[in-house]
UniProtKB/TrEMBL annotation:
It comes from the Eukaryota. Gene3D superfamilies: Pleckstrin-homology domain (PH domain)/Phosphotyrosine-binding domain (PTB), SH2 domain. Residues 123-218 form the SH2 domain. This is Signal transducing adaptor family member 1. The gene is STAP1. The keyword Cytoplasm does not apply. Pfam families: SH2 (PF00017). GO terms for molecular function: protein kinase binding; signaling adaptor activity. Keywords: Phosphoprotein, SH2 domain. Residues 1-84 form the PH domain. The keyword DNA repair does not apply.
Length: 218
């Protein structure tokens, strides 16, 4: 029988925060779920003595135990909603729960849009490079205008056997945005473009957030 450490847990955005108890102001651990691949019940038929489920991430699997079956289904539904940006159809929910999930979904969409806006800077290619090199702790991904007024570019900085800067052209097709890669990827919004880079790099890229520049988009 596996031993579990007891925590009071909060889901904020796509991150689980673990506290020693409800009154403790600082969290003890946190788990980022933006790259979640799937969720599975450990013992699907277990109804007593707590219910378990497994969070499958690219680099680890995390098993959690909650009070009961209903509690497990509710946790799974909220986690899937914020990571997939859609209310899951695979879980049976009550009308009140569906209302809450749709509210959470709208909040998460707004949060991600705000995050995308914060990493947009009206800077040149060279200025983006200088920003990423000067303050790497602020993030390593910048969305900026392209060489014309219609399109965009993404500049990233990664440490791969030393610092490495790359630029990706993002073309506004009128119906979406195409990232020019070896195999081009077309997405519906600039927020989806940022999400694509975050997920494909398994969290190694983070939006560059600074208070120095006016980075409002639109």
């Amino acid at each position: 029988e596996q031993d579990f450490q007891q925590y009071w847990t909060e889901l904020r955005g796509t991150t689980l925060f673990f506290y020693m108890d409800k009154k403790t102001p600082a969290y003890t651990k946190k788990l980022e779920l933006v790259n979640l691949t799937s969720i599975a019940n450990v013992y699907p038929d277990e109804r007593r003595g707590g219910a378990r489920f497994l969070l499958m991430l690219p680099n680890e699997d995390v098993e959690l135990k909650v009070e009961d079956y209903d509690n497990r289904e509710e946790w799974k539904s909220f986690i899937l909603t914020v990571t997939q940006l859609a209310v899951p159809a695979c879980i049976s929910l009550l009308p009140g729960q569906l209302i809450r999930l749709n509210e959470v979904l709208e909040k998460e969409k707004k949060r991600r849009t705000a995050m995308m806006n914060r990493c947009f800077y009206a800077v040149s290619r060279q200025e983006a490079i200088e920003m990423l090199e000067k303050d790497p702790s602020w993030g390593n991904l910048i969305l900026r205008p392209g060489s014309d007024s219609k399109n965009f570019s993404v500049t990233i900085r990664q440490d791969i056997d030393g610092p490495c800067i790359k630029h990706y052209r993002v073309v506004n097709t009128g119906k979406g945005y195409t990232i020019e890669l070896a195999r081009s990827v077309t997405l519906l919004s600039l927020r989806d473009v940022i999400d694509y880079f975050l997920k494909e790099t398994r969290g190694s890229l983070m939006p560059f957030v600074s208070h120095t520049y006016d980075n409002r988009l639109g």
